[in-house]
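Researcher: We're teaching a course module on how sequence relates to structure. For the next exercise, students receive a sequence and then see the predicted structure as tokens, so they can try to spot secondary structure elements on their own. Here is the exercise chain.
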Amino acid sequence: MLEGEIRNETKHLHHHLDICIQKVSLTKGRGRQTTFFFYSKIISGKKMLACGAYKEENAKSELAIMIILHEYSLAIVDHISFIIFVTTIQLLFQLPSQNTIKKEIIGIYEHEK
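Model: And here is the predicted structure for the students to work with:
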């Protein structure tokens, strides 16, 4: 190959995208791009960097479960310090209104029946 000639320089990257297990498992069947984020994870006493995918529905559901388990007031979603805390952790998460989180909690109770 001559110096400066561009040929197959990114082919391996395209191939990796096609076979990447994590990408395929996270985006399978949704037809949309997944937002990846990095977080710290403690494994065997060592802090490691890990990769995950942000799923707003899971976050909303976990918030509802937290409110149920700890008997928090629905008003927690309007507390300025809680809003700042959540925004610090995940900028993409839109805190639901009290009515929305109440519907989520009712849905959890109905699902358990």
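Model: If you want an answer key for the exercise: The first strand starts at residue 36 and ends at 43. The CA atoms of residues 40 and 49 lie 5 Å apart.
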